[in-house]
Write a structure and sequence with these properties.
It is a single chain. It contains 9 helices and 4 strands. The protein has 250 residues and is of the alpha+beta class. It has a 4-stranded mixed beta sheet with strand order 1-4-2-3. It starts with 6 loop residues before the first strand and ends in a 12-residue tail after the last helix. The relative contact order is 0.10.
Length: 250
């Protein structure tokens, strides 16, 4: 059997030249509006993927969102060389594999808290849509600058606003709570810090005890703190002297 090469080409393609796959098993109607909002806010950054005939392999929701926004042209990756079985498998796998990923809700909560919505709106206004649309692009109906712009429902967005209860209100079904996880990490860090400080105190106490023992030995031999005393004290300490010694007499 002759081997063939699979090639990829990135182009700007007229929206009307892109053909949805007529047997697409993915129902994506509810995702179109949130994705349109995301595209309007952040740009059209993930190309639609088609085969050599312009039939969509991945990106049906992006295609619908682009049409909703009135885009005349969108970025497309054209893949050539896939067999019909591979095309079917790719369409299914592209959607199914995404379902296997899960949120780290602690990190999610932290990331959302760091978004400056006013600054994001200002940044969105600076996007130049001239290359992709024949006219002024409109904001999607109901566009808001909050968690709903990320694809969360109104209920989820409301829960996310209540930081103290975000884990319990929104994600308890996952068995995790961002708030509790942060508390546990903080408690663990405090325990580790206390343990480190305790070990440091023990080390200092041992060093002080060793110094005392060296002083007893050396002073017992020399009876004063002259040059010979400090010389012997240094040698004894360097050797790790830990033996209890009674005071000697000069």
């Amino acid at each position: 059997m002759t081997k063939h090469t699979i090639t990829r080409e990135l182009v700007d393609m007229p929206i009307e030249s892109i053909k949805p796959y007529e047997h697409n098993p993915r129902k994506n109607e509810k995702a179109v509006e949130p994705l349109a909002q995301s595209i309007r806010a952040n740009g059209f950054n993930a190309p639609i993927i088609t085969d050599e005939n312009g039939v969509i392999l991945a990106g049906h929701t992006r295609h619908k969102a682009a049409k909703k926004l009135g885009l005349a042209t969108v970025p497309v990756i054209i893949i050539r060389g896939l067999g019909e079985n591979q095309k079917k498998a790719y369409r299914i796998a592209d959607n199914k594999i995404n379902e296997l990923a899960k949120w780290d809700f602690s990190e999610l909560d932290s990331e959302i808290e760091q978004i400056d919505w006013e600054a994001m709106e200002a940044e969105a206004e600076q996007i130049d849509w001239e290359a992709l649309t024949e006219g002024e692009i409109e904001w999607p109906e109901g566009m808001k600058w909050d968690e709903t712009a990320l694809g969360f429902s109104e209920t989820e967005a409301q829960a996310l606003k209540i930081d103290a209860d975000v884990g319990e209100m929104l994600h308890t079904f996952e068995g995790t709570s961002p708030v509790r996880e942060r508390e546990q990490r903080r408690e663990e860090e405090e325990r580790e810090q206390e343990q480190d400080e305790g070990e440091e105190r023990e080390d200092r106490d041992e060093e002080d005890e060793d110094c005392d023992k060296v002083t007893f030995i050396a002073k017992g031999i020399y009876g004063d703190f002259g040059e010979d005393f400090w010389k012997l004290a240094g040698e004894l300490y360097a050797r790790g002297v830990k033996t209890e010694t009674k005071w000697g007499k000069k």
